[in-house]
Structures are given as structure tokens and as C-alpha cells.
Structures
1.
Amino acid sequence: MADDVITVENLRVRYGEKVAVDGVSFTVAEGEIFGILGPNGAGKTTTVECIGGLRIPDGGTITVHGLDPRRDRRALAELVGIQLQHAELPDKLRVGEAIALFASFYRTPADPEALLAQLGLEDRRETPFAKLSGGQKQRLSIALALIGNPRIAILDELTTGLDPQARRDTWGLIEGVRERGVTIILVTHFMEEAERLCDRVALINRGRVVATDSPSGMAGRVHGELHFHFQPSAPIDAVGLERFEEVSAVHVRGSDVEVVGHGNLLGVVVGELNALGVVAQRPRIDQANLEDAFVELTREDALNTPMVAEAVAR
């Protein structure tokens, strides 16, 4: 198991009377992509700003590769690259100029030309920031976060506002960054993004960590039923399927059949169809995913439910 390179313990931040972060604790292992999820205003950005040394917390402790972000900000800047949720450059600043400027902040920066090539920006070297597309601006943000050869990259809402193709291209870039050995903290509200990229995720709600787990493990905490949709190749007795204990309901809508249940539902239904000489055409299984867990664990009364008490205890 990889060593933990980030430790956050009982982190607390207040804005006047409002408690933004209320006792957040988690660890991040070296080389993993660690996601931070939560509703708007949950405290996600405040938490990562404290980790990156950009904000001073009111309580708790943080260590990043053994450094205290409050005490060791200069040393931390050599280890951590940050792409903020809201960051702009001067409209007339050219891509190559931005890279050269940020490279000058570090003693041993990455090769600017190689980084531009890796991120597909080599032909935009002379392009002003204002003329870049949304996807190109995000690529430049990644480049600026990586120009210092960081061991840790903090990426906050990296793909917000991107079209689906640009978002998927950016995901590929992030996977490439991890392959270079960089530990990544990814703040996102896109569940598909977290499921694809993250090894583990922390779900924060109202300033508190509700649960920490792998995306699949988080989804597994939602005790939802399976929904098996198909079109039978021949008419079937839908009521006959209800005799199985794994089946809780059967719905027929025209030529479509939906069987709702749990456990080995798929095996039971397919076995019965085979016995009848019927083929399940256009089959589809719907089951709980990370989005379902997000909704269930962050709803208004969730903190009082047994599921969340169990999740926090894990």
C-alpha cells in the first residue's frame, strides 16, 4: 500500500458566523487520484485551498509530504501545483508567455516546450488567452499547474463548462499526469468524472465528510434495487416472474418488460426465460451508482439516517 502523503485532521474554517468546514479529516496516498465531491457550498474548495496553503484554517492540522501549509508555504509551493476553480489570465497574455512566466517562479521547472506539446498547445504558443477555446484554457490551466514539476496537483472543477468531447479529452490528460507519478486531488461535481478517474472519493456535505470510499464502494452503500429491462422475443407471463423471491415487481410497457428486484435477479430471470425458450432482447441493467450515493447521502435529512451513520463510521 502506498504511503499517505497528505493528512487532514479535524480541519475547521469559519467565515464570520458561518462554519464552512466543520471537522474534515481524510488522507491521500501517494500516486492516487483522490476525489472530493459535494453539493455547492459544501466546503470543497475551502478545504483544498487550505491544503495548498492559500487559506489559513481556524483549526485542525494538515501535513503535505511532512510540511505544514501554514508554516512551510515556500517549500510547499515547490511540491504542489494548483488549478483553481476560478482563475483568469490577462486577455492579451500569450500562451507561451504565460508558461514562461510561471516557469520563472520555480528553481527546477518542467520543460515548457515539452509540456505544451504534451497538452496539445504547441500550435497555440502565440495565441492570446482571450482567443483560446474553453478546452484550450483548461489545458493551459493544467500546464500552469504542472510547470513546477509538482509531486501533488490540486485540480478544482477542472471540466466545468466544457463540452462532452473536451471533457473526455481532459480526462485523458489527467490520467496521463497520474502516470507521471503525480498525486492528484480532484474537486468535481461530475459523478461520471469521479467514477472514471478517482481511486477514492470523499463526500463532503455541509462542511463534514459524510463518507470516504472508492467510487464503486460508495455506490454499494446505497441499498437500491436492480432494474432489469428487456424486450422478450416472444410473449411471456409477467406475473409468473413474480414468484421468485429475488423479484419484487414486474412492469410491462408495450413490448418492454422491467423486472425490479435484488440479489441474483439477472440470473433468475434469464434462467426462467431460457426455460421458456425466450430471448431477452436489448437487455439493460440499472443499479445504484455514485450519483445515487451522492443524492442519498447529501439529502437534507441524510445526517440523521442509519446509512450515513454507518458510512461515517467506516
Note: The longest strand covers residues 4-15.
2.
Amino acid sequence: MKRCYLAIDIGASSGRHIVGWQEDGALRTQEVFRFPNGVKEENGHLTWDVDALLPRVKAGIDAALGRFPCIESLSIDTWGVDYVLLRGEEELRPCYAYRDGRTEAVIPSVHEKVPFSELYARTGCQFQPFNTLYQLCDDLQKGRLEGVTDFLMVPEYLMWRLTGVKAKEYTNATTTGLVSARTGKFDLELVERLGLPAHLFPKLSQPGTVIGEYEGIKVVLCATHDTASAVEGIPMEEEQLYISSGTWSLLGVKTPRPLTDEKSMAANYSNEGGVGCNRYQKNIMGMWIVNRLRGELCPDKPFPEIVAEAEKSAFDGTVDANARAFLAPESMQAAFNAALEEKPEGVGDYFRCAYRSLALSYQNAIRELEENTGRTYDKLYIVGGGAKNQFLNQLTEEATGKKVIALPIEATALGNLKIQMEGMSC
């Protein structure tokens, strides 16, 4: 009976369980379970319903075992940045979502303690108002860290609930803004200067580490930050540009080491951990703006029809897709209207504007990346849900001048599986 592995890939809007196995020299996959996910509003804040995630994770494992009884290992990846606080075995609620605006007030005081230029030089982590370090400093200011023994990133938390083992995984830790770009370990001097409890920042484990078992299945740390797993799942013949296109568009390239110079800081490029590499990349607002527009303007209209209307539109206006106004607006349509001198008239106009704005943001990001790395690239690999959008791919190719190789594959799950297989073979 073939040896199988289970990737549990959870995104901001849905999660999926995908079983993989080797057959005829290739990695084969089958999705066996899918479930919804999303932020909810709770007492004026945006939060994750992590209490609902665990039973869905377990239900998917049961479904996988029902079809593939010989599962060797499993692993979980999710978005980065967010976490669950623990007092021993007691879980603190809520689990805040990164789109919540709770950190706005604390950011200036953080930068008074450690200027952002120094934060970037130490960690190479781009500025985002939702970075974990700002969230933790908000917790500290509000007294939420009193008696706290652990903070576990969301996939670490879910694997702890499966195994009873609390493990801190390297790639996800690099999304916190608290890992040294030089050593690859938590920067304890930075932690001390921010006043955060040092015991929350233990030794980091690398992808491929077996941490425990669940129902007789080995539980392995993949690259638990979904983008790190996605990059491992891209079948690139050589190092080229990539976009992991989902709720966010993560555009970047693998580099041997972090780039923490002033040009990289000015361009707001991030350095995040990969498997044996550094990921030099930038967060771009991504399909979030498209999905929110659809939810407001035409929730029942299939995407092929939306794209067809966008192609027919002659609307020329564009917006800065990375502007903070689009991070979590009450109305995405109103945010577009406020940013545009000429107002869109129909559904096709809004979506043409969104797609063209994304393509232009890719163009600008690539120009900065090539200048900062001193290299020119000729190919751009796009994976994830956004890779299915041929109109956006065409706009991207026109805007960037790069050969777009769109791979509408579950790259994150493939990377997750690949790391498990390599970890289990050691």
C-alpha cells in the first residue's frame, strides 16, 4: 500500500486537506476535505474563530484516513503574524486577526523604544501595522501578557492541540519582526528593549522536524508560514521571480541571505525564512480587494463573467493597491471611489481598475526588487488562486515585461507535502 502524507493548508477564507503520494516518479495529490474560514467581528475587533478551526482540522483528518488508511505524517500551514496566547494549558481569547486595527496606537511608542530603521536593520522585516511585534506590544500595554507562558502562531497552536507539543517553527517566526536576520534566532536583545517577556521566545525548530503524533500519524513541522511552503511547491528550473497569489500577493525571489540595507527598507521589502534560503519579498494587497468588490457589487456572479466584463471595460483609472485604505475598509467600493478622480460606472469598470492596479503594483515591486538585488529576471511564476485569472496574467505580463508562467496549482500544499516527505526520509 502506498505511503501517503497529509497537508492541511488553511487560508484566510478557507482550509483544505490534501493527501499526497509518490507515483511513477511524480507527486500525486487529492483533496479530501474543504471547510470555510474567515474573520468575525467581536466587541468591535476582528478576530479568528480558532475554536471552530480545530474540529474542522480533525474532521478533515478523519476524512483523509477514511480514503487513505496509511497516512505517514501530516502538517499544517496557515497565514503568518497571528497567534494564540497561553497560560500553561489555558488559552486566552480572543485570537486577534491581522486586519484588526488594534496596533495603531502602540506603533509610535514601539518606534520610540527602537526606531524602525534599527528594527529593519536587525530583522529585515518590512513594516506592516499588523506585524506580530506590534500586536505583542499592544498585549503588553493592555496587560494581556500577565502570566502568559507561551504564544503560538496559529499552525503551531493547532499542532499543539493535536500532539500536546509546543514547538516554534522558523519560517513563521520570521513573520513576527522579532527574529535576527543575522542569526536566524529570536533577537533577545530586541525583545528586552521592547519589554516583552524573554521566556516567550525559545529555540526555533526547522521545517522537517517531527514533533509528535496524532492518531498514530507523525506530526511534522512543514514551513508553517503558507508562503514559505508555496515557494517550495513552485517547480522552478532556476531562481526566478514568484508571486503567491491569494488573499495577499506575495511577490519575491529567493536570496542566499537577507538584504537589510536602506534601499530595501525604503522599498518596504521583507526578508522571511525559507527552506535553506531567504525569501526577499513584498506583501501586495492581492485578491482581497477583488473578493471584497465582488462581495459588495455582485456576490452571485461567477468570476468568469466578472473577468469578461472587466476585459470589455475601457476604464483607465488605477489606484495604489497597497494603500492602507484598502486593508480593511467598511466598503471596498467606497474606498475605490474615494481614491479615484473619475468614478467607475459599472461592475466591469471596478474590476478592470482592480486588476490593472494589481498589475502596476507588481511592475513597481519588480523594478525595486531588481534594483535592490542587482539582478534582472526574465520569468515570473504565479501560483495560487490568482494564477487562474488569465486577464490579470496578461495585464501582469504587459506591465512587467516578464514571461508569466501561471501555474494554477495548490503550490502551498505541494510544498507542505514535499517538506514532510523529506523530513520523514531522514
Note: The domain at 235-426 is CATH 3.30.420.40 (Nucleotidyltransferase; domain 5).
3.
Amino acid sequence: MTLKVYNSLTRQEEEFVPLHEGRVGIYVCGPTVYEDAHLGHGKTYVNFDIIVRYLRYLGYKVRYVQNITDVGHLLDSGEDRILKGVARERVEPMELVETYTRRYFEDMDALNVLRPDISPRASGHIPEQIELVKTLVEKGYAYEVNGSVYFDVAKWPEYGKLSGRRVEELMEGARVEVNPEKRHPADFALWRRAEPEHIMRWLSLWGWGFPGWHAECSAMSTKYLGQPFDIHGGGMENKFPHHDCEIAQSEAAAGVPFCRYWLHNGMLMIKGEEMHKSLGNFVTLREAWERYSPLAIRFFILGGHYRSPLDFSETALQAAGKGLERLYGTVQAVRERLLSTDSGTDLTDRSFMAKLAEHKARFLEAMDDDFNTATAIGALFDLNREVNTLLDSEEEISRETLVAINDLYRELGGDILGVIPEEIAKGAAGLEEPLIELLIETREKLREARKWDLADEIRARMAELGIALEDRPEGARWRISRQ
């Protein structure tokens, strides 16, 4: 099966064929670094991390570009988000963005999101944005008024082709600011005039100012990926106006298509609303980590298809954590068995190796279907049940079979999904090993004192927490329950 992706531009699933054989260029809209990242950001960047991981797994050489917006991203009120953060914390703009850029990458590292190959900053690419605006003015697609420059959507009939919005509808004033400088309400700013008190400003052909939010992504994506390039990603909320504006200004300036495949991820929902900082209904990633491990959060995100909305709830996160514990318990058991097994290939269960191949095929089939991680995880749990049955049987398992099982978990759960680390210590899913050992010691002392009821109660309560005990002649052994 070949990889198919849903292209938001054509509104249909298509076979993925890169512009250059064996190479893929992907650009994803990055964060505006004025506050800590929240769970919604986590969903977006975990979703695109999976896409990049899987493309590399298929053998493509991927150049992944994700920008850092550190200037020019305005709120609906016209206030610059960076300057809002500056006023809040009473620091220099570059001090603010440096702090939150570092924290953003720390948060992504914790989620096991691979770093982009290039993370260009908007403030470091002002000349490229000025050049883009200059080209649009020279070609008649943009006009200058009092030091600000606007794109003239009336000159670009295809404006809105990604979101499906018609210029006629936009001219009625829906979701666009009323600005007397504009020729039409739908026109958008390419360059904004900066008043003398505006901290972040640069000298341009039109005086002191700063770029409009949309200009940075066009300038930086094409600088590092060329035009056209393969994949542009971002949240559903960015289709309009951000991505529609990117397409219009990029194609008007260059005269060729901007991007071949548009991929959009669904929003994270909380109590029926989209999670947004502007709504005040967000939970930062660092707040979430006070209760859940980062990999449990990643696993929760992957439990839904990237294009679908995902409902955040305590129950859903708890279920994800328990599901991850079941996987860890099995992987742990396989690796422990490997340490004590030295038998050769003569005992290998060939039929079980065939079953591994079937589970892998189902997993990859799901990933080839527009990166369907939800179905892929289902295939991984089917594999998990099969492995548990084998481990719990009385059959002797060869080292070759155990190695094959471990390699498959590493490949599917580690390399592709990024949720199974190379080293899983006991307690990695949130259980504390010393406390578990203490409970076992206490239970043994109760058994020696013939206080069977209390000993059984400890065993039962541990089972409720997902810790299974096995009484053996040499002493009790424990494992995270795989049931």
C-alpha cells in the first residue's frame, strides 16, 4: 500500500508523490513565543512529529522547517502578542522571546517531539519579508498607504481557495477588521507602519515598521524549501485567514503554485470549546505534567486521528496512561526474558514470526492511510495481546523470537509513534519502584505473621493499581499488569 494523505486544498485523499524523488520538504506554522505552550500546541506538534517520523521511516530524506513567530503576530484588537508579553513581564522583547523559545523546545523535548531541521525566526528574516512585499507592490498586487502596505485581494481572484471563502462574503466585514486605509475590507497587511513608541520596528522602503503576520511564513518557507514545496502543515484554525493569505501573496509574487499538499490537524477541545489562550480555557503542558507523564500525554494525543478534534478530559488522560502502562509491562517482560534466554534459532516459533509480520502490516496499513495513529495503536494492542499470550504460556521461547518481538516494539512504538523509549525502568509509567518493593516486603512480613487477610488485601489493592504479583519459591516478583 502506498501513502495517501488528505489534501485540504483539493479536499480529497491523494497518493503522496514528492516533488523530488526521495526527498520531502515540509513547513509547519510554529508557535508565537510570548507564553508557555499549552496542550493544544502539544497536539499540533505531536501530530506533525508523527508525520515527519513516518516519512523518514518510509525512507524519505525530510527537511522539516518550523518557524518561531517572535514579531508581528497581532491579536484581534491589533495588539502585538509579543508586546503584550513584554508589558506583562516587564522585560525586553528579545528577552521575552528567548525565554519562551527555550521553554517551548524543552516542552517539545519532553513530549519526544523531534527538533525541526530549521527553526527560523521571523525577526531574523525581515529582509526576506521586505523583499516579498516589494515584489508584490511592483507587480501591482499590493499598495502602500501612510507607511503600511496591503495586499489587494480584488487583484487575486483565487483568494480563499483553501478555506472556500469567497471575497464577496469577506467584503461584508465578517471576521475582518474595519480599516479606512484599506481599499477593501478583505485586504490584509503585508507591512505595518510603526509609531515612534513601537519597540519592535525596522526601516523599510515605506518607513519604520514591522511585517504582517502572514508574510513571515511565505518568506521563510520558500527560502528554505523553494517554491513550490511538498507539504505545508498547521492547525485547522489557520486555514483562514493565515493560510489563504500565504497562498495569495506567495503565488502572486512568484507566479507558480505555493505548496502541493496542505495538511491540517484538528483542534484540542475542552468542555465543548476549542482550547485557546484567548478564551482562557487552556492548560499549559507544564501544568499537565504535574499530574501526567509527557509520554502519557503524547499517547493520549495519538489516540485520535490528527485531522479530528480531540476531547481533553481527566478520564481520557487516565485511560491513556493505563494503556501505556500495559504496553510498558509487556515490553518490560520481553526484555527481562531476553536477559535470561540464550537459546538459538532451533526453538523459534515460525508461526509466531508470521503473526508478527501480520501485525506489522496492519500497523503500516493504518499509517499509510493518512497517518491514522488511532488505528495503528489498535494494531499495536493486538500485537500486545498476542505477545502476552505467548509469554504466559508454558512454551519455551527462543532468543530469536524474543529479539524479533523487541525489535518490532522498538520500530512501531519507538521509531514511528515515539512512545516506547529504548530504556523502560520499572515505574516509568508513573509507579515508584521503591514504594512497590516496600509494599511487597510488608506483605511478606504479614504472611510470616500469618496475617493472611491483611496480606491478601495488599495484593488486591496493588492489583487495582495495575501491579501484578507472582509468588514464587525464591520470593514475590512484580510487574505492571498487562491485562
Note: Residues 314-339 form the longest helix (26 residues).
4.
Amino acid sequence: MEITAQKIVQIASYFSVIAHTKGRLRVRVNPKIQSEVQNVTLEDIESLPSKINGIKNIKINKIIASVTIEYDHLIFPKEIWDDLLNGKNLDEVIKIIEKLQKEIE
């Protein structure tokens, strides 16, 4: 399935920050994501680095329900992640994600 910027915003609403340093974000994933986010697989999420410029790696730990995202802070600044995870300025975040998607298509 193609993950849209809107779907990324929806997925991120189930994340809470464990640790965030420049270039590395680790989040806890709310278990409700399984029943409420339809048609998205772990493979879809793990494939995001190949589809979005600025995301280097995504590691999912199913046992402790966490996701670690390594990213280029020059392309995808920490402030954008903060807005995404706090549900702020989402229209702007969606525009940025869409722009980064188009650059590698």
C-alpha cells in the first residue's frame, strides 16, 4: 500500500516520544494502532526510508512496541517531528512530507 502524508500523520498520532536527539527519534507505539489504522503493514512503515527523502532508517521493535527512526536533521528538522508528534501545524507537515516524497519519485 502507498502510505500518504495523511496516513503518516494518522500513524504518528499513536506515537509518544521515548527519546529524541538530533537525527534519531525513538517512540512508543500505542497498541490501539492495530485496530484503528487500516491497510498499513509493518513492511509499509519499514519501507519509508526508500520513499521519503531525509529518513535514513526505521527499526521496529514489536516486543516492546517501539519504533526508532534515524533521519537527516538538515532535510527533516527536529521541529517538524515535534509538530507531527504533537499534532501541531499538520497542514504544513503534510506539505513538507509530500515535497520530500516527490523529490525521490
Note: Residues 5-95 form a domain with the Alpha-Beta Plaits fold (CATH 3.30.70).
